[in-house]
Amino acid sequence: MVEGVEAQKERIMKRILLLVNCIIQVIGTCGGPLVIRLYFLHGGKRVWLSCFLQTAGFPILLIPLTIFYIIRRRNRELILSNDTSKAKIFTMKLPLFLIFSVIGVLQGLDSILYANGLAWLPVSTSVLIISTQLAFTAVFAFVLVRQKFTPYSVNAVIMLILGAVILALNGSGDRTAGETQKQYVKGFVMTVAAAILFGFVLPLVELVYKKAKQPITYSLVLEIQFVVSLFGTLFGIVGMLISHDFKAIPKEAKHFKLGETIYYVVLVVNAILWQLSGLGAMGVIFCASSLMSGIMVAMSTPITEVLAVIFYKEKFQAVKGISLALSLWGFVSYFYGEFQETRKIKKDSTPQTIRT
């Protein structure tokens, strides 16, 4: 009975943790594109700087990591009062460190692709394209972690792909002032490439979680996000050095249309929001699955669409509305399928009463 109560408490805590990470991911996923677009709209031109900012907020993870370290140290002192060894703030072992350092480089590559896309596309268009990562996440999840599919999830994948195709056909009428057809196509192709790579990374992380010989805890998830962001940032720094972005930042700040102070505020807020998005994604994978994490990105699309229209006065043509409707259709279809599957599992697991 005691074990049952403890198991129930653990399930409740994991659901709360899942909810918190979903909220964190949605905030970061919606806010990141909006703030980075603000940078480009008001005079920012450094694409590698934009790439760098998508992972550079990792130092904020030292706050929760320190809290977990203090908790571990106190628990260790209570349980092992005679143990002279000290608890470590980082518990990740070398194999996981090496794997996630490679994933961090992939994250850096994904960041530069997405930064190029946002430089040439309106926010409302780019987020609709990036939402197609759910389709790629589903495919890679099936290949890597044997994700089960239902007619509802297949329908979701098809709807999201159709939404992206419709946007591609609308390219000539969706360009911002002064933007060429070539620049629009470049932004579109790079955003699609970013969606594909992102769709691959999420199931890859889930696969590593499952295959890891080291027990995965949420504290370790924070360490994983720290390492991934660290190497993604190093990737961005190399690009910034090659393109001389560090020398250009002070000059760009002085000519920023909203002012020099606001320029640096935009950079800092941008880095924090993207870090929240990454941490939320890692946490959702830990609590649920990579496909669920991809779903949260897709769910953020309608919110970002509305915010982009409100704050940036972006056009919302009929074609874009159709694309959004297809994305929402796919989103609802997936969750309805998950709801039906959960009901079926509960029904099958409920003991049947035997009448005499």
Automatic annotation (TrEMBL):
Record membrane topology: Multi-pass membrane protein
UniProtKB keywords: Membrane, Transmembrane, Transmembrane helix, Transport
Location within or outside the cell: Membrane
Record protein name field: Probable purine permease
Organism: Lupinus angustifolius
Molecular function, one GO term: purine nucleoside transmembrane transporter activity
Family annotation (InterPro entries): EmrE-like (IPR037185), PUP_plant (IPR030182)
SUPFAM superfamilies found in the cross-reference section: Multidrug resistance efflux transporter EmrE
Domain of life: Eukaryota
Predominant subcellular localization, coarse grouping: membrane
GO cellular component, one term: membrane
Residue intervals passing through the bilayer: 16-41, 47-71, 92-114, 120-145, 152-172, 184-208, 220-242, 262-287, 294-312, 318-337
Family: Belongs to the purine permeases (TC 2.A.7.14) family.
A family per Pfam: PUNUT
